[in-house]
Amino acid sequence: MHRSLVALISGLTVLCTSPTGSPHIGAAGSPRAVTPRSHIMFIVLENHEYEEVTSNSMPFLYAQAQKYVLLTNEYAIRHPSLPNYIGLIAGRTFYIDSNCERGDPGSGWPCNISEKSLTNSLSAKGLGWKGYMENLPAGCSNVETAPGGYAKKHNPFMFFDRIRNSGSRCKARVVPLTQLTTDLANNELPRYSFLTPNLCHDGHDCSLPTADNFLAAWVPLILAKIGSNGVIFITFDEGDSNKGCCNGQAAGGHVFTAIIGPGAKLNTKITKALDHYSLLRAVEENWGLVLLNRSAKAPTLRGWQS
Question: Is residue 108's pLDDT more than 90?
């Protein structure tokens, strides 16, 4: 081959790749390499449809969604609450169809799960995690309810044998929300975290404005410590309807979901049909983790990273 032609081809190759060899999005639509988000937190609220979250009912959350990323077509998995929480960290409901509270008919109480969850994938990759539970009496407490509005049905970690039975590790990783204040002050926010407000602050027993005030108090503190490209996913466990999507994987209602923080795009609406398994898949893909269960077939969430 003529030397000048070789040089021309080499020059074109350099132009078509990034310095690391990763392809850029171009005219052909090839994927763009994305730097993993350093920290991801989930905050899960309760039992409201997408249309209920407005600038009047939840001005703080609504404004954050408008500033960053709003998923306009995202669906919960099923009813009631617990299967959605389980699905968000494991990609399956494990046939759980109740809140697994003592006395629930047909619940299979206490609904202990021997399978793996996202926490196993994170630990295998050397990534830290914590569940922050408002009004949890103590680290790794297995009580169903507690004064102040704690409810185990909104704490998916305690249903997994590999977490609940891990002794001191469980006590250090499934903790009262008060621990978050300490972790933020010490710059010790784990790479993945999951925050569950109590039954009032999540909108279950109290109003959406009350839940919004909770977010307005905590979210700025978290964003200040989440790192230069960290994000917070704020979603609802389920809606009031049986609306669904995604080849029948989801039928728990149309829910409001926002992705906010320095690692999220600005002024972005994503209209693709997604479900809670899609949110789990986004976490797994961010850190190159194994896709657990139905997350492997869930619609892929794209275009949310800054």
Answer: no
